[in-house]
Design brief:
alpha+beta; 3 strands; 77 residues; repressor; RNA-binding; bacterial flagellum biogenesis; three-stranded antiparallel beta sheet; cytoplasm; 2 domains; mRNA 5'-UTR binding
Length: 77
């Protein structure tokens, strides 16, 4: 992990097209601004994890449904 110190209005550049700017610091809260192309999804970590878990559950439901259909088709044959 790279650790950098930044002050208000200072930025970090990631690649050619992602810029993270420290907007303000108040107590233990830091507000940041992120400039990135629209095709790059940006989420808070806890939201990202929730999305991943929901996608995994949806995939598992699809696999379970396919197994059930396969079993049903085999019984009819």
């Amino acid at each position: 992990m790279l650790v950098l110190s930044r002050k208000t209005n200072e930025s970090i550049q990631i690649g050619d097209n992602i810029e993270i700017t420290v907007l303000s610091v108040s107590g233990d809260q830091v507000k940041i601004g992120i400039n990135a192309p629209k095709n790059i999804e940006i989420h808070r970590k806890e939201v990202y994890i929730t999305i991943q878990n929901e996608n995994n559950q949806a995939t598992q439901s699809s696999v379970d449904l396919l197994r059930l259909l396969n079993t049903s088709i085999k019984r009819e044959s």
